[in-house]
Amino acid sequence: MTTLRKFLVTALLAIATVASAQTTNLKVMSFNIRFDTPKDTGIISWKSRCQPCADVIHHVQPDVIGMQEPRGPQYEQIIATLPDYTYLRIPLGGEVTEKKSGRIMVFFKTNKYEMKKWGYFWLTEKYEHPGYSFETTDRGNIRAAIWVKLKDKQTGRQFFFLTTHMPYKRDKLDDTARMKCAQLIVDRMKAIAGEKVPLFVTGDMNAAWQLRAPRRNSLLPFYQWMWGAREMSPITDARSSYNGWKSTQDRAWPNNIDHIFYRNAQPLRFVTHDEPNYGVPYVSDHYPIVCDFTF
Question: Model-level pTM greater than 0.85?
């Protein structure tokens, strides 16, 4: 091999090494949009909040979104307001009615990511079929999780993203059910994603992690395998993610039941978007939470 050829080969290998080491930036959002119900009237009705929900997303520009609670016509309205995103939801048909679909969605920027594969499972002992979540007293909802593996088109880096919505009732049985749901998500993602690929888990977990939070133990399986973005980001806040249509300024402790967990990535900045800048006091009874990552 000539000296020139050796030089060219060495240079190309160096370029390939640098390219393969190129990092990816990722902005993750979890957003419980509040389902459409006649009980919500005036400025908290879905009719009043639909465009503001889209506006906050367009303003923040998340790369991937885990969304909880859309129902019925909300699906089509949300999809129509987010044309730059590809969406995923559990397909209906056969035994899967809308009630059994988990009522969750994943969105990702179409021009930025290539979808490699995706799937879903239910938060139940027989996770391949819809059913109630273990011993939960929350019998009005069937809970599920959606996951997707994405490839950044520019850097080639790949990662997994999941969103879910866990049972919400307050009985001790529900604490146990939520913990089993969290453990199921961890077990399934260990099998699907493995230990080394970056992974992000988002959702309304209906449990906070503060020491005084009564449902804290429900989240233990997540914290045993992952990190919490709210706690680990060098820039973060301690504001409530749940507001219940009321100001959270006077709360004795923040009601942070919405979460972003991660593995094999570095959080940079976590934000609870509670600013009333979108034409209504509240875009939902939950504030969207966002974290910037690099990996």
Answer: yes
